[in-house]
Amino acid sequence: MNAPLLFVQDLHVGFKVYRGLLHVLNGVQLSVSESEKVGLVGETGCGKTTIAKSILRILPSPPARVLDGSIRFRAREVLDISARHLRAFRASEVAMIFQDPTAALNPVFTIGSQLMDSIKYSTAGNGLSRRQIFKRAASALEDVSLPDAERILKCYPVQLSGGMRQRVCIALAIATEAGLLLADEPTTSLDVTIQDQVLRLLGTLVEERETSTLLITHSLGVVREWTDRVYVMYAGSIVETAATKILYEDPSHPYTRGLLQAIPKLTGQGIAAGIDGRIPDYAHPPSGCRFHPRCPQAMKICAERRPPLVRLGEQHQVACFLYGEDSDGE
User: Fold this and answer.
1) Measured between alpha carbons, how far is 5 from 123 in angstroms, rounded to an integer?
2) What is the pLDDT of residues 51-76, one digit of tens each?
3) Are the C-beta atoms of residues 215 and 226 closer than 8 Å to each other?
4) Domain with 201 in it
5) How many domains does the chain have?
6) What is the pLDDT of residues 139-148, one digit of tens each?
7) pLDDT for the residue numbered 275
8) Could you tell me if 181 and 214 are in contact, meaning their C-beta atoms sit under 8 angstroms apart?
9) 75: Cβ contacts below 8 Å, ≥ 6 apart
């Protein structure tokens, strides 16, 4: 595997609210290599979007605060980037597709104004005239299969459908030629047929450009078809990571198995199972492994200590006391 383009190590993020400090990210560690497509899956509310916003440093502060950890991009510490250089980092190094295109696009500016500005202030726009930037913006819309690009550049977001707005958001992300793409639930608000079209399009674009991608989703079906490697997240912690094929053939963490069992079955082999309970209160998270109150295989040690990531194979790690030197549970 190539050296990591992005490396997040022991990241702790909290939110200061009236009830106290919400410990949302609990020592997250993940990496994305050059040209790699990585999936990040987990239940709604487990902290996936918080990771992406932490990488871009767009979490509102207050209430958010990074309590500990490191985020390195191309060996550069992102948390140490000055405010002066932060805009250049966001414009040229890392791009993000937000899950709600309606909120991501400014309603009072045309598509052309927003797309041309994103190109102008990135390295892709260096030395280009306004006319050249306009042509590049039109080309970006054509790349995402939007017909009559010059007409769309003159439109406001409200004049476009949901699927068209999402394609514009993808165009905004790829036009800057960023090295890393953060795709946060890019098809959440779209119907099934448009979801498939958008994901196929996005997959083609990142492969053609060899763009490293972190796909954030709760759809295990999308992850299986789309990614090279997967991180499974529960309540702010990474509980398992593996190459995609390995994860689906040999899921090891009880939470991962629970997620896979919750996928609806269309083969007449019974209905999908669920996972009892709910994500814990981040103001008062459980001790030890945060999944132990819901885990059918919980042991005494699970409530006492946080499990470390144990290597099960060259491309497979799991944070669970069912494995490793403490696997006897005593």
Assistant:
1) 18
2) 999 999 999 988 999 999 999 999 99
3) yes
4) 4-93+178-319
5) 1
6) 999 988 888 8
7) 84
8) yes
9) none
